[in-house]
Amino acid sequence: MSEHLTVVKHPLVQHKLTLMREKDTSTASFRRLLREISLLLAYEITAELELTSKNIETPLCEMDAPILAGKKLALVSILRAGNGLLDGVLELIPAARVGFVGLYRDPETLQPVEYYCKLPGELEDRLTIVVDPMLATGNSSVAAIDLIKAKGAKNIRFMCLLAAPEGVARMKEAHPDVPIVTAALDECLNEHAYIVPGLGDAGDRMFGTK
Ligand SMILES: O=P(O)(O)OC[C@H]1O[C@H](OP(=O)(O)OP(=O)(O)O)[C@H](O)[C@@H]1O
Ligand SMILES: O=c1cc[nH]c(=O)[nH]1
Ligand SMILES: [Mg+2]
C-alpha cells in the first residue's frame, strides 16, 4: 500500500459505523457490526496482495489460475478489543497464522501495560496485519508493533475502526513504514484521551464490561 492512511469510505462501512457509534446500540449488535465491518476492511487491506499462478484442471480443461504468493499471512490482535476485528478477518483469511499482544492502557499515564505476547514464527517472511479497533494516542499500537518488529516482521499493516489525528501522527513518527487502514478519522482526543466523537470504550461495549 502506498498511502500511510487509508479511510475506507464504502457506504456499508459508514452506515454500520454510525450504528456502532450510537450509545444505545446493544452489545450483541455492536459485536455483529464490528465483525461485518472487519470483513470490508480486510477486503481493502488485502487489495494489493501479490499473486502467483498455479496450473489446475477444471472439469473442462487445464488453466494457469491465480493464487496468493508467498508464506501464509500473520494476523496479530491487540487484546482485548482487537479480537472483535480478528474474528471477521479470519473468516476471510482462514489459513492465516494468528498472534496476540495483550496490552491495556493505564488510565493515568496513558502508557500501555503488556501482559501477554504470543506471535507466530517466520514473521520476516509474512505480511503481518495488526488489528485493534481504536487508534487513540497511538501508544498501544506503537508498542505492539515494536514487539512485532523485534520478532522479525518487516511487512506490517495496521487495521482499525476509528483513528484520532494524534494516533495517526504518532504512528507515522514511530512506524512510517506501516500503512493504516481505518473506517474513520475522527476529530480529536478528549482530556481522558478518548476519541471524539468516537464510540466510547470499544472493549467494554464489545464485551459488556464497564
Ligand atoms: O491508542 P491508545 O491511546 O493506546 O488507545 C487505544 C487502546 O485502548 C484500547 O484498549 P484498552 O486499553 O481499553 O484495553 P482493552 O482492549 O482490554 O479494553 C484500544 O483497544 C487500544 O488498544
Ligand atoms: O476512545 C477510545 C480510546 C481508547 N480506547 C477506547 O476503547 N476508546
Ligand atoms: Mg478498553
UniProtKB/TrEMBL annotation:
Signal peptide per UniProt: none
Cofactor binding note from Swiss-Prot or TrEMBL: Binds 1 Mg(2+) ion per subunit. The magnesium is bound as Mg-PRPP.
InterPro entries per the UniProt record, alphabetical: PRTase-like, PRTase_dom, Upp_B, UPRT, UPRTase/APRTase
Regulation acting on activity, per entry: Allosterically activated by GTP.
Organism domain of life: Bacteria
Annotated ranges, domain Phosphoribosyltransferase: 7-209
Cofactor annotation: Mg(2+)
Residues annotated to bind uracil: 195, 200-202
Swiss-Prot/TrEMBL keywords: Allosteric enzyme, Glycosyltransferase, GTP-binding, Magnesium, Nucleotide-binding, Transferase
Residues annotated as binding 5-phospho-alpha-D-ribose 1-diphosphate: 80, 105, 132-140, 201
Catalytic activity: UMP + diphosphate = 5-phospho-alpha-D-ribose 1-diphosphate + uracil
EC number assigned by the record: 2.4.2.9
GO molecular function annotation: glycosyltransferase activity
Pathway annotation from the record: Pyrimidine metabolism; UMP biosynthesis via salvage pathway; UMP from uracil: step 1/1
Family statement: Belongs to the UPRTase family.
Classification via HAMAP family: Upp_B
Function of the molecule: Catalyzes the conversion of uracil and 5-phospho-alpha-D-ribose 1-diphosphate (PRPP) to UMP and diphosphate.
The name this protein goes by in its record: Uracil phosphoribosyltransferase
Organism name: Thioclava marina
